[in-house]
Amino acid sequence: MNNKLFDSELKVMDVLWKEGDSTAKHIAEILGKEVGWNVNTTYTLIKRCIKKGAIARSEPNFMCHALILKEEVQEAETDELINKIYDGSADKLFAALLGRKKLSADQIEKLKQIVGELE
After folding, report:
1. pLDDT (tens digit, 0 to 9) for every residue of the chain, 119 residues total?
2. Which residue from 17, 31, 54, 110 has the least number of CB within 10 angstroms?
């Protein structure tokens, strides 16, 4: 992928990640209902994603296929957040997340398991 995806482009990608390969028309219908976008807006965003190497287009029917995984985008966005806001320190991000809300015993146990798996 060439460039970072903007929030609007991520909405298009999210449809593909949830629905699988879809026609541009189907993506436009979903985003029309969910976000209120018209068809032209959605098609423009699909074309931007194609230019960035995030979507492949095939015929017939302007079929769209995601070329990147959601997990790849999540990882890149998380890395960017850690670098931009937390000086590259994942433990600062983790501490900030944990300090925001009271966690249940189950959530704490799940976090302990995740940390245990990393060791």
Report:
1. 667 899 999 999 999 999 999 999 999 999 999 999 999 999 999 999 999 999 999 999 999 999 999 999 999 999 999 999 999 998 888 888 787 777 788 888 888 888 888 87
2. 110
